[in-house]
């Protein structure tokens, strides 16, 4: 009899502890920020140790952290869905280096994992989103293993951010972005192939520069809409943190976007110099345009995040080489 009483008290105490954890009530909004969650500094824990050992010292998230000497952190949050319908949403977490979401699947009666982040090829335009299911009239517990190793060398503290986006709005936005990118790309391709046909007929260098400009536009709109996350499997990025604790990622999309801008500027300037015949009619303005282009390319290279580019990137030498190639082509 005494053992039964003790057992009931232990169950009641454990239920009290679970109910005392911070929980978030799911709202009927397109976007929402999750502010009530717990954090635990990882010490080579496995998920089984985190889940089965209730004595792990999770603490309520209260602000920014200094990650010196820390590789991973565990986040725990509880989502309560008061609706009579099951809701579907997408979860995004910052930092988004390599995150692992642990969620319980009621169909298979087991915990399932999902990997996202800058280091992971998710085959999505946004590589930091994770689909989630919130059962009707239920309270679900989720665990997140967040990689923070690259932030250890940053001089500023960084905070965690968790955003919930309803599936309906997420899919509508993705469909709109795909339609916008596809329509713009199709328009540019029509101009590209039409002018390519004219170039093969007349062999005019002016059309060649116009084709280069259109090619830069294709690269830019694809990178600006982050579709290189789908088209390329490589994952290269650079991370920086500002004094406010905001994290900035310079990845392949940012690199290709700046490359597209550089190609567009080069194509337009060279198009104007060739079409107006500035090299022998207006030598002064030809020199002004040439060095303006070189200055813009140099500023684009010197901007934050482009330093990892090869050191042999020399805008003046590139423009002069392009001029010489075109002169040899015209003479031939």
Number of domains: 2
Shape: elongated
Q: Strand-residue fraction?
A: 15-25%
- Kindly state the number of beta strands: 13
Low-confidence stretches: 1-20, 304-314
- Fraction in helix: 40-55%
Q: Given this structure, which CATH class of the largest domain is correct? A: Mainly Beta
The span between the termini is: 104 Å
- Known CATH architecture of the largest domain: Sandwich
Classify the secondary structure makeup into a structural class. Answer: alpha+beta
Helices and strands in order:
Blueprint: H1 2-20, E1 23-25, E2 31-34, E3 38-41, H2 47-52, E4 59-60, E5 72-81, E6 87-94, E7 99-105, E8 110-116, E9 129-134, E10 138-147, E11 161-166, H3 167-202, H4 205-224, H5 228-231, E12 237-241, E13 247-251, H6 252-275, H7 278-281, H8 283-302, H9 315-331
Parallel strand pairs: 1-5
Antiparallel strand pairs: 2-11, 3-4, 3-5, 5-10, 6-9, 6-11, 7-8, 7-10, 12-13
Helix pairs in contact: 3-4, 4-6, 6-8
